[in-house]
Amino acid sequence: KKNEQELKDEEMELFTKYYMEWKGGKKSDSISYANIPRFYYRLPAEDEVLLQKLREESRAVFLQRKSRELLDNEELQNLWFLLDKHQTSPVIGEEAMINYENFLKVGEKAGPKCKQFFTAKIFAKLLHNDPYGRISIMQFFNYVMRKG
């Protein structure tokens, strides 16, 4: 029979073995962690002037790129003109409507910045109970103004 100290030593050895396996002590088990991209970077300290300048500049470039993607006033006016020109009859009430075929035509003519808004998904999202399968031009234009 084993004495009490030998049992404790064996118990500690097994505990350490299983704990290391569970914790990821084996290199083969933790390889997947190396594939996870880093998503958090700490903010630079006050004395890290170069890192602060780099952060400011990268933020400015990001905001410039985003602002170039936005539609300016002239592009919005052109979009409204195209939508109004391609509205689909019959007119019910006072609301101008457009069907999917004309929606795609406007999408081709509207320009590259507007292309992201002329998808089947967006058309379906704005499609309500119109018996002719059309969407409201005003609702679509408001959607573009909010999202763009």
UniProtKB/TrEMBL annotation:
Keywords: Cytoplasm
GO cellular component: centrosome; cytoplasm; spindle
Subcellular location(s) of the protein: Cytoplasm
Lineage: superkingdom: Eukaryota
Main location: cytoplasm
One GO BP: cortical cytoskeleton organization
Record's keyword annotation contains Cytoplasm: yes
InterPro entries from the UniProt entry: PPP2R3C
Record protein name field: P2R3C phosphatase
Source organism of the structure: Erpornis zantholeuca
Gene: Ppp2r3c
